[in-house]
Design brief:
6 strands, MmcB-like, alpha/beta, globular, six-stranded mixed beta sheet, DNA repair protein MmcB-related protein
């Protein structure tokens, strides 16, 4: 068979892509000096894919989008903005980033790490909300650490 006749379609599963992008975005946040937690419930009932606490107390949220369909059917991302100083979309390298809105920051990530392609615009939280979120974040991290400790 001639090489020109050979055609290969790469198919990425959504769960595998979500896991890979989430892992890479969390690793990038850690490289940037943030302490990330995955799957963090917010007071409005939403769940942040990655929430991270920065060295100066800033809070960042990364909303992972596994594909075009995921972005098009999920319009709840605006509901994360009141709970962070910095908001990013995190996508895989093959994601067509031109379909994303310009306002949020943009992270391109895979299972090994990521890069900030567009900086997030800082919109500082009110002090009372920051304190409440920081305390909840610290408690969640501590409880997860305790849960994950071996017993015996």
């Amino acid at each position: 068979m001639p090489a020109a006749a050979l055609h290969i379609d790469l198919v990425f599963s959504r769960p595998a892509t979500t896991l890979s992008v989430t892992r890479g975005a969390a690793r990038l946040m850690a490289d940037m000096g943030f302490a990330p937690l995955l799957e963090v419930g917010l007071p409005n009932g939403r769940r942040a894919d990655v929430m991270a606490l920065g060295p100066r107390g800033e809070i960042a949220i990364c909303e992972v989008k596994s594909g075009i369909e995921d972005f098009r059917v999920d319009r709840k991302w605006g509901e994360y903005r009141p709970y962070c100083d910095l908001f990013y979309f995190a996508v895989a390298p093959e994601f067509p980033s031109d379909i994303l809105p310009d306002e949020p920051g943009l992270i391109v990530a895979d299972g090994f790490g990521g890069a900030v392609v567009r900086d997030a615009i800082s919109m500082p939280l009110a002090p009372a909300r920051r304190k409440a979120l920081t305390i909840a974040f610290a408690r969640l991290g501590a409880l997860r650490t305790l849960r994950d400790q071996p017993t015996g």
